[in-house]
Amino acid sequence: MRAFNRRCAYSQQHTDRSLGEKTMEIDHFNPTLTGVARNDYKNLFLATRHCNNAKRDKWPDRSLRRKGVRLLNPCEEQDYGPHILEHPETHRLVGLTPAGRYHISICDLNASHLVTERKERADCWRLLEKTPITLKSEGRACLDEVLKSLKEQVEKMIPKIDYLSVDHPSYVMELEVAKALFS
User: Fold this and answer.
1) Are 17 and 120 in contact (CB under 8 A)?
2) How far apart are alpha carbons 108 and 148 in whole angstroms?
3) Rounded to whole angstroms, how far apart are CA atoms 177 and 41?
4) What is the C-alpha to C-alpha distance for residues 34 and 17, in angstroms, rounded to an integer?
5) Which of 148, 152, 53, 145 is nearest to 107 (CA)?
6) Model confidence at 149: pLDDT above 90
7) pLDDT in tens, 54-108
8) pLDDT computed for residue 117 by the predictor
9) Which of 72, 18, 70 minimizes the C-alpha distance to 47?
10) What pLDDT is attached to residue 183?
11) Which residue has the higher pLDDT, 95 or 132?
């Protein structure tokens, strides 16, 4: 829990948002390893039950790996950013590389509860960062307390993920996918 800051290695969902520690599991990142290597510390990742069950024992075969299809190792590389971005309107994740697309699919990172949390996080940060507030001095202390509490809650949501640019070829395609899914 400490090594992963109480967050799922795949979805980045905080333990407090995933219904507590009892819904967190240890995932064997590479399920094809055997013997001592299977339970080596660097192969054990904290995962929500959702991500762990979605991923299960899936691992791309050699022919897929030659095409760049693989699971991203968040302990050894930056997954969000180079491989995965968030669509600013749908809050679904978009894979920029074969590895990113595979990772999103296998870990079910566009499950409705994760998309909803990313949308709520974006809405909260937008309010916190862009809403001008003017108060008389007697109301300031109360507002500061409310804002502090809200920020503590928002910081336990899935962290901000870089947004997909409007100019990116996948931008419009993702809008069409989301429209088809939700209509």
Assistant:
1) no
2) 32
3) 38
4) 33
5) 53
6) no
7) 999 999 999 999 999 999 998 898 888 889 999 999 999 999 999 999 999 999 9
8) 96
9) 18
10) 66
11) 95
- The pLDDT assigned to 111 comes to 97
Contact indicator for 121, 154 with CB cutoff of 8 Å: yes
Which amino acid does the sequence have at 107?
A: C
CB 60 within 8 A of CB 71: yes
Using the predicted structure, report yes or no on whether residue 137 has a pLDDT greater than 80: no
Contacts of 92 (CB under 8 A, 6+ apart): 86, 110, 115, 174, 177, 178
Residues with Cβ within 8 Å of residue 115, at least 6 apart in sequence = 90, 91, 92
Spatial neighbors of 33 by CB under 8 A, at least 6 apart, are 40, 43
CA gap 40, 36 in Å, rounded: 6
Alpha-helical segments (H) within 89-136: 98-107, 112-130
Residue 94, token pair as written in the block: 């978009």
For residues 117 and 17, the answer to whether their CB atoms sit within 8 Å is: yes
35 HSE (CA, 13 A, CB side): 1
CA proximity to 182, closest of 126, 116, 122, 124 = 116
**At residue 3, what are phi and psi to the nearest 5 degrees?**
-60, -30
Q: What is the pTM of this model?
A: 0.87
Tell me if 100 sits within 8 A of 72, measured CB to CB: yes
